[in-house]
Write a structure and sequence with these properties.
- It comes from Marinomonas ushuaiensis DSM 15871.
- This is Copper chaperone PCu(A)C.
- InterPro entries: LpqE-like, Lxx211020-like, PCuAC_sf.
- Keywords: Signal.
- The chain has two helices and ten strands.
- Helices cover 13% and strands 52% of the residues.
- It has one domain: PCu(A)C copper chaperone (Immunoglobulin-like, Sandwich), CATH 2.60.40.
- By secondary structure, it is mostly beta strands.
- The chain starts with a helix and ends with a helix.
- Strands 1, 2, 3, 4, 5, 6, 7, 8, 9 and 10 form a ten-stranded mixed beta sheet that branches.
- The radius of gyration is 17 Å and the shape is globular.
Length: 143
């Protein structure tokens, strides 16, 4: 009996201590015809008392999803693949153009204004969270 309880606790415990982030202002840029890639943006709030490390992402609309950043290199803006992105306890981090973003690579179909995509963030503790993102075309959103 003790062995069974210990096994159950070992299976449940990682879930109980999983890092959870609050995500808002989610959007995916509608891709232009001929482009197989696009970017997703969001506001990430770590409302926990623990630092959270995002180690990856996946999406239902693309073959691959990667964490990326834009950084100045001299007089050039360079986009880089990031192995992880840390969100400190009690802090917020904005994923925005010319900064951090989730790059959606190999879109399965064109994503259009008004649609939704699901992006799942993966954490270094083995947990993950799925979020809905609205697809926006900045030209149509401004109307």
């Amino acid at each position: 009996m003790k062995k069974m309880i210990a096994t159950i606790l070992m299976a449940v415990t990682p879930l109980a201590f999983s890092a959870q982030l609050e995500i808002s202002r989610t959007n995916v840029r509608a891709n232009i015809p001929g482009s197989d890639n696009t970017a997703a943006y969001m506001l990430v709030d770590n409302v926990t008392k623990e630092d959270v490390r995002i180690i990856g992402a996946e999406s239902d609309v693309s073959d691959f999803a990667e964490l990326h950043s834009h950084k100045m290199d001299g007089d050039r803006m360079i986009m880089r693949h990031e192995k992880y992105i840390d969100v400190d306890a009690g802090e917020s981090l904005r994923f925005a153009p010319n900064g951090y973003h989730v790059m959606l690579i190999g879109l399965k179909k064109r994503v259009k204004h008004g649609e939704q995509a699901t992006i799942t963030l993966k954490y270094d503790d083995g947990s993950s969270q799925a979020f809905k993102f609205d697809v926006i075309d900045p030209r149509k959103a401004a109307q």
